[in-house]
Amino acid sequence: RRRAQNRASQRAFRDRKEKHVQHLETELSSLESKFLELKTSHASLGETNKALKNEVETLREEIKTMRVLNVGMEEENAFEGLVEGGWDGCGQWDG
Fold first, then answer.
1. 83, 89 in Cβ contact below 8 A?
2. C-alpha triplet 32, 34, 39: angle, nearest 5°
3. At 93, is the pLDDT very low, low, confident or very high (cuts 50, 70, 90)?
């Protein structure tokens, strides 16, 4: 009778162990799938981030160029205002 009980206990243990292993294998498969999904997402976001950084740098350069052009135009407009007001450009007033 004791031997039969030991065999039943061993069989129950093996069954529990097998179910546990199956559960772990299912969980591993799910986690691997999630990992690949996150890895792909991370790569995509990295590319988007890189593109946006490049766009920001391009826009900064454009702003810098526009500021330089704007300052040049302001100086030109100021010079034209002086000429219209009677300044001859050589430090002499005509009027």
1. yes
2. 95
3. low
Measured at the CA of 22, the angle between CA 20 and CA 25, to 5 degrees, comes to: 110
Assign residue 9 a region: left if phi > 0, alpha if psi is -120 to 50, beta otherwise?
alpha
Confidence band of 95 (pLDDT split at 50, 70, 90):
very low
Nearest to 84 by CA among 95, 73, 71, 72: 95
Whole-angstrom distance, CA of residue 24 vs CA of residue 37:
20
pLDDT tens-digit series, residues 35-86? 999 999 999 999 999 999 999 999 999 999 988 888 777 777 666 665 565 5
- C-alpha to C-alpha distances, 39 to 12, 32, 34, 35, 62, nearest whole angstrom: 40, 10, 9, 6, 35
Task: Name, in order, each residue with C-beta under 8 angstroms of 60's C-beta and a sequence gap of 6 or more.
Answer: none
Cβ contacts of residue 95 below 8 Å, gap of 6+? 85, 86
